[in-house]
Amino acid sequence: MMTKIGIINYSMGNIGSIKSALGFYDYDVSVITHPKEIDSLDILILSGVGNFATASERLKKFKFWDKLDEEVTCNEKPVFGICLGMQIFADKGLENGEHAGFGWIRGTVIKMEGEAIRIPHIGWNKITHHEDPLFKGILNNFFYFMHSYHFVPEEKNVEIAWTNYGGIKFVSAVRKKNIMGVQFHPEKSQGDGLRILRNFVEMVS
Amino acid sequence: MIPRRIIPVFLFSHGRLVKGTQFRDHIDVGDPISQAMIYDAQGADELIILDIDATSESRHIPLEIIESMINQCRLPIAAGGGIRSVQDATRCFEAGADKIVINTHAVLNPSLVQELADEFGSQSVVVSIDVKKNKEGVYDIYTHSGRQKNATGLKAFIEQIVNFGAGEILVTSIDNEGTLNGYDNTLYQSLRTDIPVSFIASGGAGCYDDIVNLFNKSDCDACTLGKMLFLRDYDIVRIKSYLTGRKIYVRDA
Lengths: 205, 253
Hints:
With 205 residues, chain A is of the alpha/beta class. Chain A has helices at residues 16-23, 52-61, 65-74, 84-87, 190-204, and strands at 4-8, 28-32, 43-46, 79-82, 92-93, 99-100, 107-111, 121-126, 128-129, 142-147, 149-153, 159-165, 168-176, 179-182.
């Protein structure tokens, strides 16, 4: 049976491009607007742009929060986080005060800061990565970033890729069992981005 | 630092791509979707699509064009034209835009920048400013696709929108746009220190060395290309290869 992929729609930015990118491989992808629909899924995608507090508020408002937490922690359903959708894995985010995340990976989301750098970090940047199946077949390691905050995990063994922005080295991909996430936008990163999405789906199918 | 970005800019008018000179005399240069797919395949770093009639016709850029581009392309797409509220922007994001571009309505109502940055994050908000040099050599801001002069001072406006959370600033020289005579490097040099965020230069690129000169002289983060791509024999692959040969850091296409 074909793997069923669901993109959680909690009104935090554009999910059309993720659906379209996964559709490139003819995967069975749907946009999920109701928590009940999660039961029938094999893979969850959590994306999002905007701020940390609003993301957690809306996940709760649309009743996704508890359901996602249960599926990911108790049932170990594979989840892939993109950008803010990955940051929300953390215990807490420090954007406009301290706000709680899912806490699936211990750590904090903090603002990028540096003397000589332009914030937000916008554009294509390189990743250096561990030997990990998520990066199988990647050609030139450039991915598209657009963010002002980044995730600092406490559990160092979850880090699988890093990126350097004007001297700030931050974690650009994490993996902990069924939980994976990237700071960049694979759905916007041409060939290598598509390959990452495909690798993820193949790893957990 | 990170690679300089090469961004084709699409002027969209009633379903077609157009290109003019100094914001006038637009001619048809093709179908937006097929052109977008071509530049995506060539390794463009991003695309910007601007509906040049939207503000004057009191509407925003059609969502269908954003949706079709998102479905056919795998690169970041910034969309603009007539966006005047958080609601307009929400529709564009829901249609798939990665960033929205505001121009006239940012000048008329600068607090819109703050509302958009609060709702969507600075990284998704591009403020586009069209400028024209007057007889005294001072740059005036123009709105409504270059048709209306505005009294707001350029540097004061930039300071204000940066404080309000603009994530990127695109500055187009009306005098140079579509001339193929090169960018107004003096303009970009003089503004760089005022712009602590990503800075995109626009207007005038006509040959490889125009781009080399821009990046050597002004430290902009990105440049847009228009007529040079649509009406001359250049493509992104060869442009990037030329820039790499001139020690300008760009992403391998």
